[in-house]
Amino acid sequence: MTFYQQLLENNKAWVEEKLSQDADFFENLAKGQQPAVLWIGCSDSRVPAEKVTGVEPGEMFVHRNIANVVVHTDMNVLSVLDYAINVLKVKYIIVCGHYGCGGVQGALLDKPIGLIDNWLRHIKDVKKRHEAELAECKDDTERLNKLVELNVQAQVANIRNTSLWQDANANEEAPVIHGWVHNLKTGLIKELC
Ligand SMILES: [Zn+2]
């Protein structure tokens, strides 16, 4: 069986497992969603939002891109934020980066890669704002992990600076924003801000 075929087999097994625990699981799920959390994370395959936080389908609204970046002109992330804040009325927004992030590393090394350079530009801007702090790091690993943290903090600030969040905040309906970093080596999450 190919890995591709295995995915469909896994799906059937998962459906059976869910139905054995709750015969109405999918019927109820199909009625609608009321997730309390919007997750903005990296596309990295090693940080699956639902798995690392142990939530079930329907509990988390998820947006992922390379290096968990919130860009004020990105209609994709703005639409997700709009829907999460104004329709789903989520209580929390979590920006979750991860140590050893390839996207952040690409921004740190600052060597031309290709199209993605334009996306990484946003992280290079974060790097530029914190040059002195990054220069104090004892080695490249510490520098990368520092920039991962600074990037999460910058994206939390970017969410706060959207008109979407500020309008919700004016109505005292804004979700609380948290910045997290996932550690690939331990599986554990660190609360940053
Ligand atoms: Zn990453």
UniProtKB/TrEMBL annotation:
EC number: 4.2.1.1
PROSITE patterns: PROK_CO2_ANHYDRASE_1
Keywords recorded for this protein, A-Z: Coiled coil, Lyase, Metal-binding, Zinc
Signal sequence annotation: none
Essential cofactor(s): Zn(2+)
Entry annotated with the keyword Lyase: yes
Coiled-coil segments: 120-147
InterPro entries: Carbonic_anhydrase, Carbonic_anhydrase_CS, Carbonic_anhydrase_sf
Cofactor note: Binds 1 zinc ion per subunit.
A Gene Ontology BP annotation from the UniProt entry: carbon utilization
Enzyme class: lyase
One GO molecular-function entry: zinc ion binding
Record-linked PANTHER family: CARBONIC ANHYDRASE (PTHR11002:SF76)
Family from the record: Belongs to the beta-class carbonic anhydrase family.
Official protein name in the record: Carbonic anhydrase 2
UniProt organism field: Rapidithrix thailandica
Lineage: Bacteria, Pseudomonadati, Bacteroidota, Cytophagia, Cytophagales
